[in-house]
Amino acid sequence: MKAVVFSEAGPSDVLRLVERADPSAGPGEVVVRIARSGVNPTDWKLRAAVGPSGPHDEITPGHDGAGVVEAVGPGVGHVGVGDRVWVVLAQVGRAYGTAAELTVQPANHVVPLPDTASFDLGAALGVPFMTAHRALTSGSVSRLESGALTGQTVLVAGGAGAVGNAAIQLARWAGATVITTVSSAEKAALARAAGAHHVVNYREGDPQAEILAVAPAGVDLVAEVAPVPNLALDLAVTRVHGTVAVYAREGGDDLVLPMQSAIGKNLRFEFLVLYTLAEKLVQAAVADISAALAEGAVRVGESAGLPLHHYGLTELAQAHDAVERGIIGKVLVELD
What we know:
By secondary structure, the chain is an alpha/beta fold. The protein has helices at residues 41-49, 119-123, 126-137, 162-173, 185-194, 207-214, 227-237, 259-264, 279-294, 316-324; strands at 2-5, 16-19, 29-39, 64-72, 84-87, 102-106, 110-112, 153-157, 177-182, 198-201, 219-224, 238-246, 268-271, 308-312, 330-334. The chain folds into 2 domains: 2-124 and 306-334, Quinone Oxidoreductase, Chain A, domain 1; 128-274, Rossmann fold (3-Layer(aba) Sandwich).
């Protein structure tokens, strides 16, 4: 099989295209022929700063992907050869992620993809939608369903980003009133396309007043991408007993909380990352995303507020660079 690998940390030019032996499926494993691989910020950050570690001399990046089952090992019953699937956290603890023609994965990280869903959509689900799911379920429940958040108001910081887009779509599917913050008219249009009920440009006017005009008692939950610059706003607009779910650290690494403000509202601050998430929570996210997908509540593309940018496998370095530069939308690698 063809695969892109790196053997040391560094800029995108450490990535190289190689030929490797086709993997086989052991007990409880599935081999997937990848049609699309999704690129996320974690991919270039791992490549740039960490490099291979532990038992692996080289790494093929890529947590997200979609394709067709090539082979199944003993004990696998929920998918079979020829089935369309999407994969979850494909590079965690494994040398070969989804930037390869074939990847072998544990069966519980290989999920059926409906015929109505494109490979583009399947490859866009993993990291963004699972992160969004965990943010939306922090502090209260581990599962969502259509209508589960009816009566609640969710504030999504950075609604034009991939995780922000996913949070808008899932929160709306779960019945929440969705407010989102953006930094430009272009991003506002994308957030509206994703389904946000109210869009606030935080560089104009009074974001606090605009949010509280929609939710006078405060929002129930904030899905936060930039906790340091947004802390004062979050404290001001989150209701008593509300939750701020932090999934990234854009704008600063050190968050200093004014204790009285947080204590006075009985606020819950939760911090999340997928790569150490308990497997039961991973599976809860998979189940809910699959349900939303089956109901047609999950979309990608310009009309869904998430423009797609396609690259070939030989262009993975350019794809990484595009994500590192902060391209708006979802970067996908075509392998079919």
